[in-house]
Amino acid sequence: MNKILLKKLLGLIIFLFPMTVGIVFATDYLFYADACPHCDQIVEFVKENNLQEQFDLELKEVRQHKENLKLFKKYLDKNHLDAESTYVPFLAIDDGESCDYME
Length: 103
Known about the structure:
4-stranded mixed beta sheet, 4 strands
């Protein structure tokens, strides 16, 4: 059941937001920005479906919290992504050894 909800979340992100959405593959972070309508929809979906607990997913707001922005930029750098053309919401999943992304 957890895999189904994760697939729905990923499908929702990719379907609703035809912008760069990075998916990096087991520590799970969903980077978002306050007052971003796309992010609001994803964060609401995550909370309504209790995905934070089910997937050990941490929500990281990047506009108000500089430490979260630094972590977001770390994932961008790790994958050679340009900060100017990569947007939130951004789902990062890192297994600790390797890191990848999908646009």
